[in-house]
Amino acid sequence: MKPILLSIVIPAFNEETNIRLGALDKVSHYLESVHYTWEVIVVDDGSTDGTAQLIDEFSRQNHGFSVVHNPHQGKAATVTTGVRASRGELVLFSDLDQATPLSQVEKIFPWFERGFDVVIGSRSSRREGAPLLRRIMARGFMILRSFILGLSGINDTQCGFKAFKREQGIRILDRLSLYGSGHEVSGSMVTAGFDIEFLYIAKRLGLKIREVSVEWHYVETRRVNPIVDSWQGLTDIVAIRINAWKGVYQ
């Protein structure tokens, strides 16, 4: 069996609508055209709709796709499960809704050849269709995380399109504190803390990070609460700063 170059980890929580609209079919159709070895791991995050049944059926009918079923623990635990189950030299985690089409991975590969350890997608100048409120929140969030955590130089921490060398990804995930395995969540909670903590740890470890502009299309997957989401984001940033002072990420 040939070594796998790319493992694609796709978290899934109550994604029945996107699956029925063909999101996974788009992934499969793209991968049929590539010339490198790959695998797709879809991790169900304890979905309460028809997601689990649909992804099981899809994996049976499509070579190279596999499914892992998790209790509902949120994105961090879901991604971690997928990465640990992966076999590729490189790992990409990508949102199931394909707001950033999988084909954008072609923009990422060259940077690994240049010695980078983590390569992330950026929507900084391509937030097509995003409401004004979301764009304002994103701008304010960028200023806060740069000031409190020193994550200057990274414009978009929240794009759901991140790739890394597998061994380095494991090092990062082993140090997660805010939303790692074992943390219980409720509903379709989506927190900014996971992506920020992931990148903050990567910088603490001295890994080389590259941000690459990718195609992105706005997909409304949940209702945004400006007050609740902004407060949660701020508390996550502060918690990461406190963890750093305590030496949690050593």
TrEMBL record:
Q: Which Gene3D superfamilies match?
A: Spore Coat Polysaccharide Biosynthesis Protein SpsA, Chain A
GO biological process: one example:
protein N-linked glycosylation
Q: Which InterPro entries match?
A: Glyco_trans_2-like, Nucleotide-diphossugar_trans
Query: What region holds the Glycosyltransferase 2-like domain?
Result: 7-161
Q: One Pfam family name from the record?
A: Glycos_transf_2
Q: Which domain of life is it from?
A: Bacteria
Protein name as catalogued: Glycosyltransferase 2-like domain-containing protein
